[in-house]
């Protein structure tokens, strides 16, 4: 799909699609939802789902922005604001994990309510408009470059490597897959399923906060409804990347490739000036087709 899209757009829009400015734009936007996708991925592998990622991202960035506005734009205040945002994301993730793991409330219900709760808190803090006037040095997190490549892309690749290591080489990664495959069997095999569940949503909260930092740095402002379309996008990417919606299976490399596919499609739509509603419709169709194909493959495996 990546090769096909690249060839088609190189033929249709050779001057604009292959421009360095367009590539840099993709490398800035891609990490904003790409990092969230790993939070959605581990939630799905555990047999759950996390619909609150965007809400956590925006609330975390708003808290960090408030701290920077109150304490000036010194490097120390920016570092503290970033750490504060990550802590807020962690706390939101722990709340989700506690409700899902300890109280056994369905993940979809908890995270959907969490999305509304965190967005509501962000709206209450900002009173509606975006928080602007953030330090210019803060905007360099997303808008700065190293060797001509935007810094967010390096962050995304670093997170990709970390998540690949966690899933392949840690006890938690293996326990997460066992939990998603069969929760009851996992309990009887000695896995602390509650601990794994809480850790899963806590990690998702941290990843969401990191995405929120990149988004607010990109726009140099913070608002409660930034990235409102990212919830469906992360679902589509994770399923397209080979994660089983029923849990137990997921691949970091597959999700990373799916992120690139969706970014290329999004960039193609923007260059061709396709209506955003049409783009959303196409993404929805891709999601349905992917789920059907996944279901078909799963049924064939069971028969074999």
What does this structure look like?
With 304 residues, the chain is an all-alpha fold. It has two domains: 38-228, no CATH class; 229-304, no CATH class. It contains 14 helices and two strands. It has helices spanning 2-12, 14-17, 20-45, 53-71, 75-101, 107-126, 136-143, 151-169, 171-181, 183-188, 193-219, 230-240, 252-271, 276-303; strands at residues 145-146, 149-150. It has a two-stranded antiparallel sheet with strand order 1-2. Helix 3 (20-45) packs across helix 13 (252-271) and helix 7 crosses helix 11 (193-219). The longest helix has 28 residues, at 276-303. The chain is globular.
Shape: globular
The helix fraction, in percent, is over 70%
Overall pLDDT score? 85
Rg from C-alpha positions? 19 Å
Which strand order do you get reading across the main beta sheet?
1-2
Tally the helices.
14
What letter string, H or E per element, gives the SSE order? HHHHHHHEEHHHHHHH
Strand content: under 5%
Q: Summarize the main sheet.
A: 2 strands, antiparallel
What structural category characterises the helix and strand content?
Answer: mainly alpha
Question: Residue ranges: pLDDT <50 for 5 or more in a row?
Answer: none
Number of strands: 2
Q: End-to-end distance, in Å?
A: 28 Å
Query: How many separate domains?
Result: 2
Question: In short, what is this structure?
Answer:
Helices cover 78% and strands 1% of the residues. It contains 14 helices and 2 strands.
């Amino acid at each position: 799909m990546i090769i096909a899209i690249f060839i088609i757009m190189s033929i249709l829009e050779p001057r604009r699609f292959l421009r360095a400015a367009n590539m840099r734009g993709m490398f800035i936007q891609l990490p904003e939802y790409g990092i969230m996708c790993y939070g959605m991925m581990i939630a799905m592998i555990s047999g759950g789902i996390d619909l609150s990622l965007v809400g956590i991202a925006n609330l975390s960035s708003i808290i960090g922005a408030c701290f920077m506005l109150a304490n000036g734009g010194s490097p120390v205040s920016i570092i503290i604001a970033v750490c504060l945002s990550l802590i807020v994301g962690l706390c939101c993730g722990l709340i989700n994990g506690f409700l899902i793991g300890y109280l056994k409330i369905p993940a979809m219900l908890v995270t959907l309510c969490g999305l509304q709760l965190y967005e509501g808190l962000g709206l209450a803090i900002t009173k509606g408009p975006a928080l602007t006037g953030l330090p210019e040095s803060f905007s360099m997190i997303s808008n700065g470059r190293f060797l001509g490549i935007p810094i967010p892309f390096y962050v995304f690749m670093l997170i990709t490597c970390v998540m690949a290591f966690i899933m392949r080489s840690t006890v938690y990664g293996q326990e997460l897959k066992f939990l998603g495959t069969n929760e009851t069997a996992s309990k009887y095999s000695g896995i602390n399923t509650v601990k794994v569940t809480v850790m899963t949503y806590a990690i998702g909260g941290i990843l969401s906060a990191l995405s929120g930092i990149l988004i607010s740095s990109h726009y140099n402002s913070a608002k409660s409804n930034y990235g409102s379309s990212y919830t469906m996008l992360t679902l589509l990417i994770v399923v397209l990347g080979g994660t089983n919606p029923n849990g137990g299976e997921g691949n970091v490399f597959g999700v990373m490739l799916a992120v690139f596919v969706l970014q290329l499609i999004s960039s193609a739509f923007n260059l061709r000036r396709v209506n955003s509603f049409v783009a959303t419709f196409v993404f929805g169709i891709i999601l349905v087709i992917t789920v059907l194909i996944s279901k078909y493959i799963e049924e064939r495996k069971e028969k074999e």
